[in-house]
Amino acid sequence: MFPPVLLWSVTFVLLVIAYFAIRKYWKFVNNFAFWAITVYTLGLVAINYYVYSLDHWKNSQSYHSFIFWLLPLPVLWILPKSKNCSLKKSAELYFWIWLGMVLLDYSELIADEYTKSPFLHMTLHCTLWNIVYITIPLIAILVRRATWQDCALKIHMNYNEKRFLFFVLFIIIALTGYASFDKEFASYYPFVRTHNTQQQLIYEIAYGASFLGLEFFFRGFTTHLSKKVFDYHGILLMMCFYVLLHLGKPIPECISAMFGAILLGTLSIQTNSITFGFLGHLTMAWSMDVWALWQG
Questions:
Q1: Is residue 152 left, alpha or beta, with left meaning phi > 0 and alpha meaning psi from -120 to 50?
Q2: 1 pLDDT band (50/70/90 cuts)?
Q3: Alpha helix ranges (H) inside the chain
Q4: For residue 138, what are the CA distances in angstroms to 87, 124, 142, 216?
């Protein structure tokens, strides 16, 4: 289980930062759609933790994963439609996201089946993650005749964006440093701990790279193509998928994923870049591992 001090600290910071992002976001969003989708998503979270474990369906070797990733389908009916929206476009968008999530589940099963050592398992897991997260959008872009720019791959940031980014990264490093003094922290991180320096570096590179694929799929591909169909409301579709991805993890992490998705989705649209999400995730992951290794 994740160290509680880290989870609640990150959740609190995300709530504060997300508040300012949501204030801007709120201007473009239908209140009923926002609250209906938020309540629906939280309802799925509550069912998973207190009624029936839905997340077991994600990791099933049968057809259950196909059904599990249909859970966000009602969101399509709740979302207000833009002028460019049609049933065909909505169904096509949902299909590509659904396909990516199903293949992601099966990639985890492959890693579980064919690797035994923690190093090989996690390295293969992260590599397969990236393959799925990048390949599905690439195929979808070719089929839809879209461009890479439609997926927020801009790197350049203005001065205010850089200042905000460095502030957030500093907070993340400080929080993980503070959490590293918790007894559970060093026993949990890093996910792979080996005395072989080369293996440790290979794992950390694969682990860090997986966040590029994650952000490209959710805050790039899903967010920006959803915006073309549902305007700003498309962030809510991405948020529902992203929260369901976190089912099975501690509740604070699952809830913080909701605010994190809205925050990073809004920043991605405002800056037309996934840089915030990628560097934020990368800094948190690597700083947790470095602090844990330093603590012994």
A1: left
A2: very low
A3: 4-26, 31-50, 64-68, 73-78, 87-114, 118-144, 159-179, 183-188, 197-215, 223-230, 234-245, 251-271, 275-295
A4: 22, 21, 6, 10
Compute the distance between CA of residue 287 and CA of residue 295 in angstroms, rounded to an integer. 12
Cα gap 52→148, rounded to integer Å: 40
Smallest CA-to-CA distance from 107 within 58, 69, 48 is with 58
Tell me the pLDDT tens digit for each residue of 216-232: 999 999 998 888 888 88
Token pair 């790197």: residue: 155
Number of domains in the chain: 1
Nearest-10 Cα torsion for 58, 61, 64, 70: 50
Q: Which domain holds residue 273?
A: 4-295
- What b-and-e string marks burial along 43-59, b requiring 16 or more CB atoms within 10 Å of the CB? ebbeebbeeeebbebbe
- How is residue 272 written in tokens? 């037309």
Contacts by 161-168, CB closer than 8 A, 24 or more apart: 161/271, 161/276, 165/275, 165/276, 165/279, 168/17, 168/276, 168/280
- Lowest mean pLDDT: which of 144-158, 159-173, 268-282? 144-158
Q: How far is CA 176 from the centre of its chain?
A: 19
Tokens at 207, concatenated: 């682990």
